[in-house]
Write a structure and sequence with these properties.
The chain is an all-alpha fold. It has 5 helices and no strands. The protein is globular and about 35 Å long.
Length: 85
Amino acid sequence: MGDRKFRGIRVAPEYIPKVQSALARKGLTQIALAEDDEVQLSRATIQAFLSGRPVDRENFIKISERLGLDWQKIVYIEADQEPIE
């Protein structure tokens, strides 16, 4: 990845609808997800995740798992970025 610093990772644009339907399928609202015992994050972090804005890697994985999604399949990888492991 060179010396570029990544502040966070985000949902790939093509997976945003899948992420939002996973939220509905789990019967959760953004507030309920933020307050969920397994998640416990701010609503702003949840909103950023659901709209494809960068969030901290640990939070990205936590939210993805709670929604039953494979985080490695929905993460956005820039063309010049090494794969994220």
